[in-house]
Design goal:
- By secondary structure, the protein is α/β, with parallel strands linked by helices.
- It is 50% helix and 12% strand.
- It contains 12 helices and 6 strands.
- A hairpin with a 5-residue loop joins strand 5 and strand 6.
- It is globular and about 55 Å long.
């Protein structure tokens, strides 16, 4: 996030109060926020307000934004940062561009032989270094449940990855984390997923095969699963879950298990 003086921060919050009914509707639409305690809920709401004042949302024709929709997006963006210090985690971009549908963008890839390939690809989201975050609005609206999909978290994980330069699957780690542990765990899991797909090209592994594209996508996809399907991630790659738990300073699986214990509906649907 960004660093704000307490006076400036409070001034922004006072100038942009959130209607409680609007926030309640946002919470009802975002199952992945279930189980947050009152203090966490308040912190998430405040950080969502600050995020919306810091970033510009550009809605292209076909995307209608009101206060609830803006908060719906911002709350998902801020969930990964909820327990991180208020630093400039989302630096490097000032704008989120919202498309009414998936979009076509030019892609470029250099293969192992040094041959560069170019093509046009259809995407629901993109994040480039020092550029805006681009999101297809239907993908944003489909996010927020415990169903192994969250476009907002996926694309903003790329931005975290890019904080120390190239998108390589290694965000800036905390001082109490060992880079060698992160690299070993992530590489082992990434290689395992690629082996599965090589031996069984049409298989449906627990983790979205898109994670096998490159280490940057592996980090983005596993971050997405960490918050939206922690039970699937820990079943497939428990060591990856533990590394992400250390990085994000959160334990979504513990929340999900508690929800299953406390609420019968969770036992049936999640």
């Amino acid at each position: 996030m960004w660093s704000l003086g307490s006076w400036h921060r409070q001034r922004i919050l006072d100038q942009h109060p959130v209607d409680q009914q609007v926030w309640n509707r946002v919470r009802q639409r975002l199952a992945i926020l279930d189980g947050l305690n009152a203090e966490e809920d308040q912190r998430l709401r405040e950080r969502s307000v600050l995020f919306l004042q810091d970033k510009h949302l550009t809605a292209l024709p076909g995307v209608e934004l009101d206060d609830e929709q803006r908060l719906f997006l911002a709350a998902q963006a801020q969930l990964p940062l909820l327990n991180l210090d208020e630093l400039n985690w989302y630096q490097g971009f000032h704008e989120l561009v919202l498309y009414p549908d998936d979009f076509i963008s030019p892609q470029r890839h250099r293969d192992s032989n040094g041959v560069e390939h170019e093509w046009n690809g259809k995407h629901s989201g993109e994040a480039w270094s020092q550029g805006p975050v681009i999101l297809a609005w239907p993908g944003v609206l489909s996010s927020g449940g415990w169903h192994a999909y969250n476009l907002v978290i996926h694309e903003l994980a790329h931005k975290l990855d890019m904080l120390d330069g190239a998108a390589n699957g290694v965000p800036p780690l905390h001082s109490d984390m060992r880079g060698s542990d992160w690299a070993s765990v992530m590489q082992t899991a990434y290689d395992d997923l690629n082996r599965q797909l090589e031996h069984h090209p049409h298989a449906q592994p627990t983790i979205d095969p898109y994670a096998a594209e490159n280490p940057a996508e592996f980090f983005a996809v596993t971050s997405e699963y960490f918050f939206s399907a922690p039970n699937l991630l820990i079943a497939a790659y428990p060591a990856v879950y533990e590394q992400l738990k250390a990085f994000y300073r959160q334990d979504p699986l513990a929340r999900l298990r508690q929800l299953r214990h406390d609420h019968p509906a969770y036992k049936t649907h999640y």
